[in-house]
Write a structure and sequence with these properties.
The protein has three helices and no strands. The protein is mainly α. The two termini are 67 Å apart.
């Protein structure tokens, strides 16, 4: 039995020896994507309009929104759409070094 154990020890040692003595693999030089920082104007919050709703009994109200509230909501939605287009344009622009 002692000879078998010695033989197995030698076999295992020879199996692991090439891994210890071989050179490390060469580095792989490929471009790595780097996340770019967005411009500060895209990070500024878009504040929602305040006090756009009015009392339901108001004769100028449509769905409890007066003309000024409607204009504020339309401006807000336009600002959001503009911001989305700006983010898309920024994201699709190739990065420059």
């Amino acid at each position: 039995m002692g000879g078998f154990k010695l033989l197995m020890l030698i076999v295992f040692a020879l199996m692991f020896m090439p891994g210890c003595t071989s050179a490390p693999p060469p580095p792989t030089l490929v471009p790595v994507a780097v996340q770019a920082d967005p411009p500060p104007e895209l990070l500024e919050p878009i504040l929602p309009p305040s006090a756009v709703f009015i009392a339901p009994g108001d004769p100028t109200a449509v769905a409890c929104i007066g003309p000024a509230g409607r204009d504020a909501i339309v401006r807000y939605v336009d600002d959001l759409r503009t911001r989305v287009r700006a983010w898309s344009a920024w994201a699709l622009t190739p990065a420059t070094d």
